[in-house]
Amino acid sequence: MTEKEIFYRHLGLPSFTPLGLEIARAEGIWLYDPVGKGYMDLVAGITVSNIGHRHPAVLTAIRDQIEKFLHVNVYGEFIQAPQVKLAKRLTEVMPEALDSVYFVNSGSEAIEGALKLAKRYTGRTEIMSFIDSYHGSTHGCLSILGNETLKNAYRPLLPDIRLMEFNNYCHLEKISTRTACVVIEMIQAEAGVIPVEEFFIYQLKKRCARDGVMIIVDDVQMGMGRTGKLFSFEHYDFTPDILVLAKALGGGMPLGAFAARKQVMDTLTFNPELGHITTFGGHPVSCAAALAGLEVLLSGEIIPGVEAKGQLFKQLLEGHPAISEIRRAGLAMGIDLTYPGKRNAFQQSALDCGVIIDWYLFKPACFRIAPALTITTDEIELACQRLRRALDAIIA
Known about the structure:
Radius of gyration: 21 Å
Largest sheet: 7 strands, mixed
Number of helices: 13
Order of helices and strands: HEEEHHHEHEHHEEEEHEEEHHHEEHEEEH
CATH superfamily of the domain at 57-298: Type I PLP-dependent aspartate aminotransferase-like (Major domain)
Shape: globular
CATH class of the domain at 57-298: Alpha Beta
């Protein structure tokens, strides 16, 4: 059997309609199939490869670490230099109130850990999140997901979950002294790039402070420079009680984390001990890759250049008759099609033109542009030429 046949026959798949593109190698913003055709990856592996595929600094860090050791024990037992160095560097660039980091494997596990931490610290059970929010697909994450269609087949889920409407400050009245935490994305990704409003976050902070409620910011998709700041909450006068990171955190390797004040984090260590445990969380190779990737992000003009690159994308695409609206936060864009029924045709047309795009879960006629932050001006111009050609094809 060919690899494609094995893929469809023996791999568990999340849908019946994967793109099925065979990848032989990757470099920067480019993916190559077995015959050498190049595709521009305009979604960065769904916001994982913020510094591009196979960045040289990350590859060097991985090679150096595998010469020393791989997994040696469950997380939190042995002192491992990659974990220690990464935790130190992250706490240096985070607000002072976030001085403790717990490493896990993925965004979903980081959300799970953050939910447990909020419940443990507050002694409360009610958790609040938002309609059209996305936080992962494990049972706890699914419980706070803001979309009933994806949840119904798996009930019963966690009890004491309440949903609010994003940016509707009247819904903040639902928060009470029963509430352990509110989980929020500063920019709702899967809703099609919807930023939180200044007044709403001000009212949320005020209400949560009054009732002793923790605020968890899910920065899995919008963190690590994606919005033009290292963390998305830095655009607001605001520091969360718990910050959740993953995706781009690992520099292309699997890694997630949740961060909080040390006295809060320490509640996971007693009554009961082992309040959260993970075997592979903070894998030394992933942490070494993450530290190298973080230093790349923090050096030079990558993050300061994000806003101008996002503006250039919008400038080159807006006005096309097949596009009805473009919403943007840095290099995260939600682009609405004028003809929703041609969604699949456009994705195929884009692929034919050598461009990889994706769709937002809760806005199916809105396509995702979220390339590596290292994309060059020339690459942006080429990508937009290809996208416009693909758009022309669906209205011809």
